[in-house]
Amino acid sequence: MSAFYLSALQLALCLGPMALGIYISMKVFNIPDITTDGSYTLGAVVTAIMLTQQVPTWMVLPACMLGGAVAGICTGLIHTKLKIDALLAGILVMTGLYSINLILLGRSNIPLINIPGIFSFHFFADDIINQLLVAGIIVFFLSAGLRFLLKTDFGIAMRATGNNPVMTQSLGIHNDRIKILGLALANAFTALSGFLVAQYQNFTDVNMGIGIVITGLGSVLIADALRQWWQVTHIGLQIILVLAGSLIFQMVLAFTLAMGIDPNFLKLITALFVLLIVAIPRLSKAIKRK
Amino acid sequence: MIKLDHISNVFNKGMQNEVVALDDISLQIQDAEFVVLIGANGSGKTTLLNCIAGAIKPSSGKIVIDGHDVTGLPEYKRSKWIARVFQNPNHGTAPELSILDNFRLAALRTKHKGLRIGTHAKFKNEVAEKVKSLCMGLEKKLSQNMGNLSGGQRQALTLLMSVMDDTHILLLDEPTAALDPKSAALIMNLAEKLNREMGMITLLITHNIRDAHHYGTRLIQMQEGKIVKDIPKLEKAVLAVEDMYKWFG
Ligand SMILES: Nc1ncnc2c1ncn2[C@@H]1O[C@H](COP(=O)(O)OP(=O)(O)OP(=O)(O)O)[C@@H](O)[C@H]1O
Ligand SMILES: [Mg+2]
């Protein structure tokens, strides 16, 4: 397998938590949350600051997730308490976070080369294989945790809130509170992706999050198409599909790059690809009707 | 006991489309009473139920349940006393959750929804047993999504769900409107049985005069947001169904 596809696999794993985060906000709670760009960068920024201060990695990881959670709580509060459209609430927090990230980082870019981090845990001599394994382990435990959560009583309440808020309100569920918690969780996951990617690419850049939400969205949309195709109701399988969506997404991007397309077109290609994913089911339906 | 003290509710107050849905309603309902609420479309029945449940905060007046002033309590907090079946069959259940998950949530209506898995085999059997009593064959479909069922099936399950947990007050808003006659009779009998055996206050809205005549221990008729008839148990027992038809002229 060429280096292109190996790095696509690695990136898919690193961005997996973010895809799961979007799955939580968009699919479980039915809230279009685009705080993502900001909380992803926040995760990377916190990682850069703490790692360069020699804070041990096992403390950096929860700190990143906490940062993301706080961002999600802000969006949640604005959305539920001020009754502001979720999309707008997300944009507001994301915009605010850009300045906060810049102030925290102190400059637009911090390199992380030769700084011990999560990928310094060595199980394999081969660096690439080792990175895959480390990211794989984190994504595995995160997915297993999410699967468990969604099957618990609290998880049922989460899923029901996104599906039928009239019902949950009559069943003793405080919709606003559970939505805020859900957005906190989603953005904590997203920040974890920032943590992983910063260390994978060996730098944190204040602009690295711009447009990243579309990557997560694309992964979830691919997963959704597959879910409907195969009629998947099982939660564990849905989570695996989201991760598969992340992989397919990165593979398609790697493929276009491998074809020698100018990297400047990458965002345009990403947008067109997501458009394609959304359009195909509708177009095929329209054609069938004829 | 439920006590409504001068409850009024005005929608779109001060605007051109202002509606007085409830007009100074005072009412006391004793424990274990089975109240049947009738009245023309738009007479305020659903609004009254929504005020009791807390889904709507009345414009004025006070609501007391079991001695607690609940006027300011949001619906999710009042749910510790109240279970409800909505007029719209889609409102009572979550379509993309399995039947079992829906029941699990209903079983925790008054309880904490914590980080433990409660949909185990024992619970599943318990639900299957209850669902079997509907004779709709749904006990074999517990892991299917609720959205796959018909409106009537969902409404029947909503009624069962409403008594999965401790219930003091059961609010039924036209629970049989979406059902075929056989299922409708089943639901009405089930509602009566639940009221008799568990002794919760039951408030039923119906447009079916025969049901209103046959079921319940008290009959209330609403008109333009007011209570125009309130017939207690003994009088209701001797009421002729023909007379009731005349009320709607
Ligand atoms: N959310 C709302 N906003 C504005 N007006 C409303 C609202 N809900 C109800 N109304 C109005 O309040 C009045 C009472 O409505 P309600 O739903 O309580 O009637 P109902 O007795 O339940 O009628 P039906 O038998 O048709 O269900 C109607 O005139 C209705 O148009
Ligand atoms: Mg009504």
Written account of the structure:
The complex is a heterodimer of chains A (290) and B (249). With 290 residues, chain A is mainly α. Chain A has one domain: Orthogonal Bundle (ABC transporter involved in vitamin B12 uptake, BtuC), CATH 1.10.3470. Chain A is built from eleven helices and two strands. Chain A has a two-stranded antiparallel ribbon. In chain A, helix 1 (3-28) packs parallel to helix 5, helix 6 packs across helix 8 and helix 9 runs parallel beside helix 11. The longest helix of chain A has 27 residues, at 175-201. Chain B is α/β, with parallel strands linked by helices and 249 residues long. Chain B has one domain: P-loop containing nucleotide triphosphate hydrolases (Rossmann fold, 3-Layer(aba) Sandwich). Helices cover 33% and strands 24% of the residues of chain B. In chain B, the strands form two sheets. A six-stranded mixed sheet of chain B has the order 6-7-8-3-9-10, sandwiched between helices. Chain B is globular. The model of chain B has no long low-confidence stretch (mean pLDDT 95). The A-B interface holds A 148-149, 151-154, 156-157, 159-160, 163-164, 166-175, 233 and B 53, 55, 74-77, 79-80, 82-84, 86, 90-98, 101-102, 104-106, 108-111, 113-119, 143, 145. Bound molecules: adenosine-5'-triphosphate and magnesium ion.
Structural class of chain B: alpha/beta
Helical content band of chain B:
25-40%
By DSSP (H or I, 4+ residues per run), the number of helices of chain A equals 11
Percentage of residues in helical conformation of chain A: over 70%
What would the principal axes of the Cα set say about the shape of chain A?
A: globular
Poorly predicted runs of chain B are: none
CATH architecture of chain B: 3-Layer(aba) Sandwich
Distance between the termini of chain B: 33 Å
Number of domains of chain B: 1
The hetero compounds bound to this protein are: adenosine-5'-triphosphate, magnesium ion
The residue ranges of chain A in which pLDDT falls below 50 over 5 or more consecutive positions are: none
Can you name the CATH architecture of chain A? Orthogonal Bundle
